[in-house]
Model the fold of this input.
Amino acid sequence: MNLTTQNGVFMKVISIWQPFAELLVRRYKVFETRSWAPPRSCIGLRMGIASTKTLRPEQRAHFNDPEFQAHYSKLGLPERLEDLSHGYLLGTAVLDSYELITAEFLEDVSDEEQQYGWFNLGGYAWRMVDPIRLEHPVPIRGAQGIYEWKGQLPGHEHEERPAPV
Done:
């Protein structure tokens, strides 16, 4: 549960590589893919979505892949990976459920969604719902896994709830 106090917000946060973090808070991506299942205590929880600070070679390779670009280039988002926000809390989303990634599961996942993650058999697809994108991202110090964050969020009047796509 997120706790709001006079001095800020306590919330669980997960850091996600760009462009996947941006795609999630803008409702273009539904599943966050991980090699591990989320803790059951996080199911149903509104979590912070942070972008990682660093860029790794595998991010660049995925971003530049023609199959990924065939979908991404139509979204009107920055053309360069470096132009996305890195090291920021971009918004929040509710962790609704998760699935073991199997061949049968992948039959129901669109080609576009599959380009927006690493859908490796045996991994986990975390279904993220009701994303809220912050109009003004908040600088954040990330960490691996799910971590606690205490900070200031802009008022709700500064949050952008994009229309579902």
Summary: The two ends are 28 Å apart (CA to CA). Confidence is low (pLDDT under 50) at residues 156-165. The first strand starts at residue 3 and ends at 5.
